[in-house]
Amino acid sequence: MDNISRNVEEETNLSQTANVYFDSEDVHACIVTCGGLCPGVNTVIREIVCGLHHMYGVNEVLGIEGGYSGFYSRNTIPLTPKDVNDIHKRGGTILGTSQGEGGNDTGKIVDSIQDRGINQVYILGGDGTQRGASVIFEEIRRRGLKVSVVGIPESVDNDIPVIDKSLGFDTAVEEAQRAINAAHVEAESTENGIGVVKLMGRFSGFIAMYATLASRDVDCCLIPESPFYLEGPCGLFEFIRKRLTENGHMVIVIAEGAGQELISESLSAMNKQDSAGNKLLQDVGLWLSQKIKDHFAESKKMAITLKYIDPTYMVRAVPSIASDNVYCTLLAQSAVHGAMAGYTGFTVGVVNGRHSYIPFYRINEGEKKVVITDRMWARLLSSTNQPSFLNPKGTQLTKP
Ligand SMILES: Nc1ncnc2c1ncn2[C@@H]1O[C@H](COP(=O)(O)OP(=O)(O)O)[C@@H](O)[C@H]1O
Ligand SMILES: O=P(O)(O)OC[C@H]1O[C@](O)(COP(=O)(O)O)[C@@H](O)[C@@H]1O
């Protein structure tokens, strides 16, 4: 117990009340994956199973299939170290997920936990999943059950607050390079070639920003946090014209949530949501590509060739790279140590470089977005030398 206590103490700077100390033979754990697909999820599943087994001698770990509703609508599957030995080499989740679904019955989920004698619940997923975990935790507490509920945050968008970085994010940025490289090759092979790449990022442009900074082939990065406009001397069309005149080709990276306000009027699905309450977006990549083509066709001053690449699902479907595998392993071990020490109602994550236990009520506060007044966005602007779009439409660009 000394070792366990020390681990928790070292890793905790946001602690949550302990409810019970577990003996290995009494542990009946389960794992459920509920969020959007993200590289590294299988690695976490593997390390929870192996961590519980190797470090604590726990033999009973169940997989809940199909996300939260799987607790009451599916059979469970046993997970042993042998079963999960190779799964980190695969993308996706071996348990299936329920991103975008809503209407889960918390009462039935907790009934299932109680009926099956489960006393440790490991929940992987993004911001929606962590909110769901908090609701389950509250119901478990209301019933006075000795069950640890632990969240492991994963979102390819890196939009989970408090933590430094979501697992799988580095892999997503790495994979995005392949699409950007392809767009660059296509663009530079034709006169006035433009490559447009759409990347994920519903409300936050982290993948687009980091992929742009990593690549150096991107001329313009557009994200939801930084509104842009098309017309006028400081608009996107004029910037494209200048960049093509200077270089003969260019690459534009656009996050899926960018520019939604520009396309909102004409498109009817703007205010639609999926069953989990997430806003359904229009394909801004297709829209922007068509707008650029129409603009240059109408102006007749410059003939362009535009290639549009949408690698979004490829980016999140790949297995995690080495650095993410290490990160996933540390998060999974941290989750296991916390649960075994009797902590509950927390999400594991790295905060200011330290592995921490973050109470659900903290992780579920607010949203994480790119702050365009921060240094990172300023670094991107100086790397691409693109307009900031902060100038009013009619005014000329000024030198900094
Ligand atoms: N506010 C909420 N309260 C309870 N459960 C939620 C809530 N939001 C989402 N969920 C559950 O979490 C699952 C995953 O959420 P979703 O937003 O689709 O993905 P992500 O976890 O990647 O953000 C949903 O299918 C839903 O069952
Ligand atoms: O098309 P789907 O499966 O609904 O998922 C798309 C969404 O999943 C994401 O990749 C990740 O979303 P989460 O942060 O909610 O996990 C978003 O960028 C994207 O809009």
Automatic annotation (TrEMBL):
GO terms for biological process: fructose 6-phosphate metabolic process. InterPro entries: ATP_PFK, PFKA, Phosphofructokinase_dom, PKF_sf, PyroP-dep_PFK_TP0108. Its cofactor is Mg(2+). Residues 30-337 form the Phosphofructokinase domain. Keywords: Allosteric enzyme, ATP-binding, Glycolysis, Kinase, Magnesium, Metal-binding, Nucleotide-binding, Transferase. SUPFAM superfamilies: Phosphofructokinase. One of its GO terms (cellular component) is cytoplasm. GO terms for molecular function: 6-phosphofructokinase activity; ATP binding; metal ion binding. Pfam families: PFK (PF00365). It catalyses: beta-D-fructose 6-phosphate + ATP = beta-D-fructose 1,6-bisphosphate + ADP + H(+). PANTHER family: ATP-DEPENDENT 6-PHOSPHOFRUCTOKINASE 1 (PTHR45770). Catalyzes the phosphorylation of D-fructose 6-phosphate to fructose 1,6-bisphosphate by ATP, the first committing step of glycolysis. This is 6-phosphofructokinase 3. It comes from Cajanus cajan. The lineage of its organism: Eukaryota, Viridiplantae, Streptophyta, Embryophyta, Tracheophyta.
